[in-house]
Amino acid sequence: MTEIESPFDNMNDRSREVFRRVVQSYLESGDPVGSRTLTREMSEKVSAATIRNVMQDLEHLGLLDSPHISAGRVPTQIGLRMFVDGLLEVRDLDAVDRDHLQNTMSSNSDGVPALMDRVGGALSGLTQGASLVLTPKTEAPIKHIEFVSLGPDRALVVLVFADGQVENRVFTPPMGQTPSSMREAANFLNAVAEGRTVSELQRVVSGEISKRRQEIDTLAKDMVESGLALWENEGTASERLIVRGRSNLINEGGDPAELDRIKTLFDDLERKRDIAEFLELTDEGEGVRIFIGSENKLFSLSGSSLVVSPYMNADRKIIGAVGVIGPTRLNYGRIVPIVDYTAQLIGKLMADRG
What we know:
Layout: H1 13-29, H2 35-39, H3 48-60, E1 64-65, E2 74-75, H4 77-86, H5 95-104, H6 112-127, E3 130-134, E4 142-151, E5 154-161, E6 166-171, H7 179-192, H8 198-225, E7 229-232, E8 240-243, H9 246-251, H10 256-282, E9 289-292, E10 304-312, E11 318-327, H11 332-353
Antiparallel strand pairs: 1-2, 3-11, 4-5, 5-6, 7-8, 9-10, 10-11
Helix pairs in contact: 1-3, 5-6, 5-11, 6-11, 7-10, 8-10
């Protein structure tokens, strides 16, 4: 597999230091950083002209931008992403922040909604950003389910539960799915959803898949044994029944209607497999992520960042997430451990509650 070349591969130690100091200074002040400022901070003595040349090279790489003529530089979204992924130094959690979070969640007698309200308030207060708290996924019976396409690689599932709660979950749909195929999947699930949880729906769909596969096996058995058809990738999700020419089937005295029946069953089997994958993706959570600027397509927060961390139950299953939304010049080194520790505390409390 060919590795994608990083801009870091074309940078020497001086370029890396200039880039790192520009980003760190910008994150602290929010102001463009000039070459004269950096001459006083560099580990080696270099002229302002030399630093300007380096900054110009970084601009050509798409890592820095110049908001005004003759002004200093600021990191681009690509530059911020590269800094977060490769140069960010995450600090240890401050003792004051740790104590504040522990005190916020010290009462284990409140219900989950009250706990999440306190968590959101604590995160906003500590980070000066907007908090994001996704509550534990509900395993209540489903009243209605809907899939909404947000783009080629993004979809939203809306779950309305029998107790009146509504959950929205984002997932990456299988390749080739269209809004119409998602509507078809939702129609099938709504026909069998009443009184069932997501997990129970998964078992229903698995049963439908097995049933269709058995029907196809029965109908196609004679065709396969006579050599008129063969299975490709048998037993996998991508299996296909290949018929060696419809005319051969007719010449051998086969029934074309039987072939049409097999094709109908096979189409239904593939739809059920798509639905099973939708349900599996619906039930999954996402890992720890930092979204910068337009990377966060769900909220369309251009110019904003989202730092989010999942929390887990006693079985190490992701059941929710907490995070902070703020400007792209967030103090990532401080906020990342705050969000991470908050997720750990919530996970422990949820595990203790069973």
